[in-house]
Amino acid sequence: MRPATEYTVRHVLLDGSRTAAGPELKMVTGNVDPITTYTVVTPPPQPVQAGVLLQSPLAQFMVATDLTGRMVWYYQGEIETLTRGYPGGIFTGFTQQAQGEDSEQLVGEFDLMGITTRVTNAARINEQLAAMGKRPITGFHHEAARLPGGRFLALANTEQMLSNVQQAQSPVDVLGDMILVLDQDMQVEWVWDAFEHMDVDRAAVLRETCTPTGGGCPPFRLAARANDWLHSNSVQLMPDGNLLVSVRHQDWLVKIDYRNGEGDGHVIWRLGKDGDFAMEPADSNGWFSHQHDAAVERGNSNRIMLFDNGNTRRAEDGEAHSRGQVWELDEFNRKAALVFNADLGSYSSALGTAQRLPNGNYHFDLGFVTPALSESVEVDGWAQPVYRLRIGAPMYRTFRLRDIYTPME
Q: What is the pLDDT of residues 18-30, one digit of tens each?
């Protein structure tokens, strides 16, 4: 329902043998203060495909609008950052408190009514990790997702004091990542610890560090400043049962041996500059950097789409824009071809989404054009923008939905 709009309603009684409908009544929904401003720069192509835009703003409540910015749904609850939507109006997400206790760091799912249907916290997870002989987490960040069989995936933060790594002689606090797979009761089932599988001596490409209240930084407690080594920002279950991880500060996508819970977590390959794949044809400007939301395209298991923020390119070229990309992989021969590369017309230093639409076009979220501006853009198969909505707030992720109950399959 839209705010401040008249609707006709009636009650219906079902007793198993007959249906009785009551009289039609008029009602006007309440008004809701908009979270921000919306400007349609380029109207969407007709007929409109997937006309609902699900949005997860920073520091504001979640909202869904039509493609002009008119609100159709909002959520104010204990989960603060929305990560994914699922059929039937179920959403996953997390709450991160930079200065909070473990019990305040939440991950779970909720429905359209705002009812939390599953949730756990870092304190409860750490009890289980300790029993497994694993290091503790400090909170959850960037990714929470459903897996088949009722399982639940969460991306968590870890930290460790290390010496003689990343060009630091004295001990330095290094932030790492942990992937947790939970069962349907939110109990830990499988764990991947980056400190056990990634090269800790390979520093963040742009030498990023974190302070306790720094933007985009998870909770950490061992030092006043920490090396933001990986900053992974998406995890997807691949068709072959392994995991695809976007490791932002390494400028890599990493494939992890999961095998639907039977894998040992070793790194199968790394895609990106200085990784395991050769780009063909070679193009020094082609590789993505500081990317977000990498995923295998549905129905095309050798293609990966992503939002290329382009921070490393931008450090070399102050006019560089963010891009939407699709890569075609030959995993056996370790060759990668850039088959789609859309200049999105703006630069987003952080945040972002990549999504294939039913009409074959792509949706991209430029989540942080400025601290007070993001853009949701649709581009066609020729990499030309055909819809652009300018939003007066940064957006962690935005997704196009068929309707509020139905995400893209």
A: 888 889 988 888 7
